[in-house]
Amino acid sequence: MSDEKFQVIIIGAGVAGSAAAYRLAKAGREVLVVDRGKAPGAKNMTGGRLYTYALKQLMPEEWQEAPLEREVTREIVMMMTPDSAVAVDSSFASMNRQSYTVLRAKLDAWMAAKAEEAGAMMVAGSTVDGLIVRDGKVCGVKIGEEELEADLVISAEGVNAIVAERAGVIKPVEVKNVAVGIKHVFRLPEATINDRFNAAPGQGTAMLCVGECTKGVSGGAFLYTNQDSISLGIVVDSLSWKNARLPIAEVAENIKQHPAIARYIQGGQLIEYSAHLIPEGGIKALPKLCADGFLLTGDAAGLVVNSGITVRGMDYAIMSGIAAADAANEAIEAGAYSAAALKGYETRLKHLVLKDLETFKNAHDYMVHTRHVFTTYPNLAAAMMKNMYTVDGSPAKRIAGVAKQTISGKLPYFDVIKDIVKGAGSL
Amino acid sequence: MKNLSMDDRLAVNRFDSDDHNSHIIVDKTACKTCPHRACTFSCPAERYKWDTVNDVLSFDHVGCLECGNCRLVCERLNQGIEGYSWNYPRHGKGIIFREG
């Protein structure tokens, strides 16, 4: 195999890598995908939910066969105190199959198989540990002693992009731009999930929580219903957590006990415990997306947006895989692989992915530096709702009076106004 | 639902561990001078523990979920200074997510 030269080698068979491989193989290119997992998907984890437009764009017909879990038709955002919760619970009759809960071991394996079917070559169980660089141009990958050559290398290696970092192609990711996610998957009968979440078969719930679930540290908890399991976990800003000095695994475990969560997972059997990083630095942390003979996609490029309500990464990863494949095709046709010849990649990404990153460029900073969102506001919301619903025979107050009584002395009004104004400009 | 110990949580996972070669190398003696010991409370799998009896770090790569958070919270792992290195396991070893 070492004598063979590929047109494109892709590092990583996640959704970005397999999307690029699928598209390139369909265009008749000689593509090799190298993945470090025993099988594609074995090293990946998501919360998580996939917005389907990207998958549709990649495979207009075949996407319907993808192993998606449940269509999200119910969205819950919740603020939590140690023993109470206030939630906004939205149910929709139809979301036009806009988003589905997913599990990566299944989804990635399926997408990789589709790419293989289209003609891409997949090698799993191999860790790329370096790039072959000649005169500043990336010419292939190193796997231990073995070297594999290619006209172009696409890095879809994920959030710890150590191959690209070590080759000096990108700057190392910084702790302030990363969040860490911890997830439990609990097995429960499909019918039990339908009952508990008041869901029709095939319909699912996505829940995001702030407050007690992360002990007031910037981040939140998530819950997604899969077909016959529930994904439950937390995501916290890595640097904020380092400064908070709280035991992360214990906090992740304790959310199971919160009364607003416990009833949903009751009787569930833990079938997997996982952790993964999320690049949340956004446009301000965006690395160089191409170098001579090299393109960077998905999490490796930090293509993630957390707006507080929607958390997106996999759709951008797929879109970046498509854009990388199209740019690679152009380069192959032109026989030119310099960074300049690959500029079409960035141009394509600008239309959607980079535009969204630009729109939410201040979201990450806002979340990290607006501590009331994770501490004071959940407490106030719960206290206010409790006060409003309290009837104990003492003279009743109007709503404004209850609000005033709840907030009084708890925090300066100026802070609230500042958070609202800044939030409106960031989220 | 009862809280589970870390051992019980990791026991439900599938691993193909490389028992002899650690993909993460730390210099436990040098770690004594670390001012924050963030690895001991930032690792989702609790692989890093401070042994208070012997006043030294204990680290076990078996059971690592390969998230990479230690590589970011620890400056020494991040910079890969002498005695410290962070890599993914080779040959498909390590965690095998069946759900993901």
Give a quick summary of the entry.
Chain A is of the alpha/beta class. Chain A has helices at 15-26, 53-58, 104-117, 162-166, 190-196, 238-244, 248-254, 259-265, 314-334, 344-359, 363-369, 376-389, 399-407, 413-426; strands at 5-11, 31-34, 49-51, 71-80, 85-91, 99-101, 121-123, 130-134, 137-143, 146-155, 178-187, 203-211, 219-225, 229-237, 269-279, 290-291, 294-296, 305-306, 311-312.
Helix content of chain A: 25-40%
For the sheet with most strands of chain B, the description reads: 2 strands, antiparallel
Which strand order spans the largest sheet of chain B, edge to edge or round the barrel?
A: 1-6
What CATH first level of chain B would be assigned?
Alpha Beta
CATH superfamily of the largest domain in chain A: FAD/NAD(P)-binding domain
* Helix percentage of chain B: 10-25%
Alpha plus pi helix count of chain A: 14
Task: Give the beta-strand count of chain A.
Answer: 19
Class of secondary structure makeup of chain A: alpha/beta
Question: In percent, how much strand structure appears in the residues of chain A?
Answer: 25-35%
**Which geometry of chain A do the CA atoms define?**
globular
Number of helices of chain B: 4
Query: Gyration radius of chain B, to the nearest Å?
Result: 14 Å
What's the average pLDDT of chain B? 97
Question: And the CATH topology of the largest domain in chain A?
Answer: FAD/NAD(P)-binding domain
End-to-end span of chain A in angstroms?
49 Å
Number of domains of chain B: 1
Task: Give a count of the beta strands of chain B, DSSP E runs of length 2 or more.
Answer: 6
Largest interface: A-B, 63 and 40 residues
What class, by secondary structure content of chain B? alpha+beta
Assembly form of the protein:
heterodimer
Helix-strand blueprint:
The complex is a heterodimer of chains A (427) and B (100).
Chain A: E1 5-11, H1 15-26, E2 31-34, E3 49-51, H2 53-58, E4 71-80, E5 85-91, E6 99-101, H3 104-117, E7 121-123, E8 130-134, E9 137-143, E10 146-155, H4 162-166, E11 178-187, H5 190-196, E12 203-211, E13 219-225, E14 229-237, H6 238-244, H7 248-254, H8 259-265, E15 269-279, E16 290-291, E17 294-296, E18 305-306, E19 311-312, H9 314-334, H10 344-359, H11 363-369, H12 376-389, H13 399-407, H14 413-426
Parallel strand pairs in A: 1-2, 1-10, 2-7, 4-12, 10-17
Antiparallel strand pairs in A: 3-6, 4-5, 8-9, 9-10, 11-14, 11-15, 12-13, 13-14, 16-17, 18-19
Helix pairs in contact in A: 1-3, 1-9, 9-10, 12-13
Chain B: H1 6-11, E1 14-16, E2 24-25, H2 39-42, E3 48-51, E4 56-59, H3 69-73, H4 75-79, E5 85-86, E6 94-96
Antiparallel strand pairs in B: 1-6, 2-5, 3-4
